[in-house]
Design goal:
With 263 residues, the protein is α+β, with helices and mostly antiparallel strands. It contains 5 helices and 12 strands. Helices cover 21% and strands 33% of the residues.
Length: 263
């Protein structure tokens, strides 16, 4: 009687997890993730390499690299994270497709000083900035509207001698899209001794009929610590009025910036 020999061959399949660049939903989640937890996830789980880490004037910057993509995380003081993904066209197309599915509103499109096309969108809660360089380098930035809008506007305002920087910036808690800067009808520059240089930022609350109901001087963006001058700025605002507009929300919050310079 012949013996039948049966040979069994076992195949061991090893699945190696490959690191992938984040999706748009992941970038959105990163905005609200604590920096320490985010760093651990990007390195340990995603397999990215931390190539740069610095803290300057309460600004934390982390730069991660993987193959042909880079991830930049920026944390400014008490603001939520700003996330930027630098990638190739293929990855950008996928991110852009995800973005368009969210049906955001295009609020700005321009060419910057470097020749890059920059488009800014507002979604329900988050802002998205897309930068396209001439050499097919794509940057997709995601940030929280609530704290980024006012800070970006304040940092971009040019300094002028004894001037009022218009002064009205809509807070994203009151409407989904940024409103054009509104001018006061009769806002005047407070009188000072001409010996100080700096800015005083005042947060205001205003009804759509143009009446200002509250003014708080010394908010973020202020560089002068002269409390008497703060009160003069507040008095100037409370005595002023904006043009009425029925198309605006009933109550809005904004920032007025007073610029002072030594005469």
């Amino acid at each position: 009687m012949k013996k039948l020999t049966l040979t069994l061959t076992f195949c061991l399949i090893v699945v190696i997890a490959k690191s992938q660049t984040p999706t748009l939903s992941t970038l959105i989640r990163y905005v609200n993730t604590p920096v320490a937890d985010l760093t651990e996830e990007v390195i340990s789980i995603n397999g990215w390499e931390l190539t740069e880490s610095e803290v300057v004037d309460s600004v934390v910057t982390l730069h991660f690299n993987f193959k042909d993509a880079s991830l930049l995380i920026r944390k400014v003081k008490d603001y939520k994270n700003e996330i930027s993904l630098i990638c190739n066209k293929l990855k950008y197309d996928n991110l852009n497709k995800e973005l368009l599915q969210l049906a955001p509103k295009l609020v700005d499109s321009r060419v910057n000083e470097k020749g890059h096309v920059v488009k800014t969108y507002w979604g329900e809660k988050y802002g998205y900035k897309i930068s396209i360089a001439p050499k097919s380098v794509f940057v997709v930035q995601v940030f929280d509207k609530e704290n980024s809008l006012i800070r970006e506007q304040l940092e971009s305002l040019p300094a002028k001698t004894g001037s009022i920087e218009a002064a009205y910036i809509q807070d994203s808690n009151f409407g989904e899209t940024p409103m054009p800067l509104r001018k006061f009808k009769n806002l005047v520059m407070p009188q000072d001794d001409g010996l100080k240089t700096g800015k005083i930022a005042v947060r205001i609350k205003v009804y759509n009929d143009g009446n200002v109901i509250d003014a708080t001087p010394g908010v973020k963006g202020t560089t002068l610590n002269d409390r008497d001058l703060w009160q003069k700025c507040k008095a100037s605002i409370m005595g002023a009025k904006m043009p009425p507009s029925n198309s605006l929300p009933s109550l809005q919050i904004g920032i007025v910036v007073f610029n002072f310079k030594v005469k």
